[in-house]
Amino acid sequence: MLRTFFRMTTSPVPKRVKTSPLLVGTHNGHFHADEALAIYLLRLLPTYNPSTLVRTRDPALLSTCHTVVDVGGEYDAAQNRYDHHQRTFDTTFPNKSTKLSSAGLVYLHFGKAIIAQRTGLDPSSPDTEILWQKLYNEFIEAIDANDNGISLYPASETANLTKRFNDHGITLSSLVSDFNHDASISAPPTSTTIETNDPNSASNPDPQAAEDTRFLAASDLMGTSFLRKLNDYHTSWLPARSTVLAAYKTRHENDPQGRILVFREPTPWKDHLYTFESTSSPSATASKVLYVLYPESATPGAKWRIQAVPVSKDTFESRKPLPESWRGLRDEELSAKSGVEGCVFVHASGFIGGNGSEEGARQMARRAVEM
Length: 371
Known about the structure:
This protein is of the alpha/beta class. The chain is 38% helix and 12% strand. A hairpin with a 4-residue loop joins β5 (75-76) and β6 (81-82).
């Protein structure tokens, strides 16, 4: 069986005394999103960068590898074996029911170290724990479920549903699947150097070499997507947590029933708002937040937005859309209809609107909650 080596680096490295990199094994043949991501995640750690990738199903070759993922029929973290295809395998992420794939297994054991490596946080800090949980919930779990054939909804709940449009199942997992037969990919990703012991691969690429190159391209897609989410959660979502909490605690200053939330700058608020609402003690005078106000930018004099809060973070349906009589109107016509000066627009669906000033947006919100 063909044995191909890949020297994998995520950035240029200075010349050094040549040593033997660790061997990391996974299977050849048709590949999926989980092992593509698992390999990339390992490469983010100093131990595995650089490393040599062996794509094979040959047990003898796999036995020479320091680490093996998604093949071999063994899960033993002490021996760096991370397969999930065994009949007896039932490992899940803490407080989850979705069985892990190779991506979930690598993330379970190395996720906090990767987060610390990329963010500078202490691996044992509360923020690292929050990010570890968040990335699993919002990124890794869907990959685990897809690879293990777990549907998003029970079949009984979708049997009578008809799609409004065809989305062709566009997901990261489906895009990785496309790489399996993408003949346009004939060179390795620019971030990766390939070494092979096959004398024909450089001058006369064979099908296995082409498959290996497509695998690396798929791995780059999965890995860069993961890093983009990690960066967003670390630099934007996590700092917003305290901002949203402060605004949530003072919401009754904007409306006696707490239905209006105000931010001084654009803030990713949805996840945090739902969390704080679900964990807060109910109050006799408190209602759920209906509208969120914020400036379009941090620039002084920026226009303001009024956004209706969705019923949940996964729906376009609003708890209370802006008044129907305002929808689709703009500028003077909207100001005349609403009785509020400085109006800019209200979307035809009523989920968002705008005003030229903070006070104007506040007036729109105060009127809308009573209509």
